[in-house]
Design goal:
By secondary structure, the chain is mostly beta strands. It contains four helices and 14 strands.
């Protein structure tokens, strides 16, 4: 069954304090890559490749081992390229409130604001940072798409400060304080839902992109299920709605 995922009553710019935006910019042809490391006790793993040709960027992001479900629906994982800061992933000292979880805002001094949203289709602007309709779904997925490069992302890549962050933790793996805490971005959600799980700095280097044309979505092996976060006054966090989308979720070994 096809399902559509969305935030309801959540400002699209909940990450506005961390987001940057800009106009398309030309860039010298170059390839970048990173192996993503775990944050906040995540059990996930991931790799990303970005090939820049002119003002076009072709990205292939592979993620596995992530939390599979949230409130009986496929877990939506948002991911972004961040920039404009130190260009590194945060270490445990970034946890300033002592809950043993590095929140998105606590990590921002290390990796900076959103410069590109690595959505499965459509809008890649920073404003789409919490758009769960185009988030990765479930435990394992691949984002394979081409998008127009903006000036901020170009500058971060060339400066070596572009950092990829994948969000969404399993609340059961957090400390009692972390599991009980509310999101620093969307207070109606638990801290786990929006906190970083994987992180890696994009570095220039030689790599091979997959043969053939780029998809504009998530490549999958099974199914087309997604869940829906719905945040309303009653704090109903998940709802399912009919609809079509371009995510084909690949089920990982639990």
């Amino acid at each position: 069954m096809n399902k559509t995922l969305r935030f309801m009553a959540v400002p699209t710019l909940a990450l506005a304090g961390l987001a940057l935006s800009g106009s398309p910019a030309m860039a010298a042809d170059q390839s970048y890559q990173s192996t993503l490391k775990q944050l906040n006790g995540s059990a996930g793993s991931g790799t990303i490749q970005v090939h820049v040709t002119g003002n076009q960027a072709h990205v292939v992001l592979n993620v596995s081992g992530m939390p599979a479900t949230f409130m009986d629906a496929p877990y939506p994982h948002v991911q972004h390229i961040h920039g404009g800061a130190q260009g590194v992933c945060p270490d445990p000292s970034a946890d300033k409130d002592g809950d043993q979880v590095i929140s998105t805002t606590e990590g921002a001094p290390s990796y900076g604001g959103i410069v590109t949203t690595l959505s499965t289709s459509g809008d890649t602007s920073p404003a789409a940072g919490l758009d769960l309709k185009v988030a990765g779904q479930g435990a394992a997925y691949t984002v394979d798409r081409t998008f127009e490069l903006n000036a901020e992302t170009k500058a971060a890549l060339e400066a070596g400060t572009a950092v990829v962050v994948v969000h969404g933790l399993d609340p059961a793996t957090l400390s009692p304080a972390g599991a009980a805490a509310k999101s620093d971005l969307v207070p109606e959600l638990p801290l786990a839902a929006t906190s970083p799980a994987l992180c890696g700095t994009l570095t220039a280097g030689q790599m091979q992109m997959p043969a053939g044309g780029a998809d504009t979505g998530i490549a999958t092996e099974t199914g087309t299920d997604t869940g829906a976060f719905v945040v309303g006054t009653g704090l109903a966090l998940v709802a399912l709605a009919g609809g079509s989308y371009v995510v084909r979720r690949r089920t990982a070994a639990a």
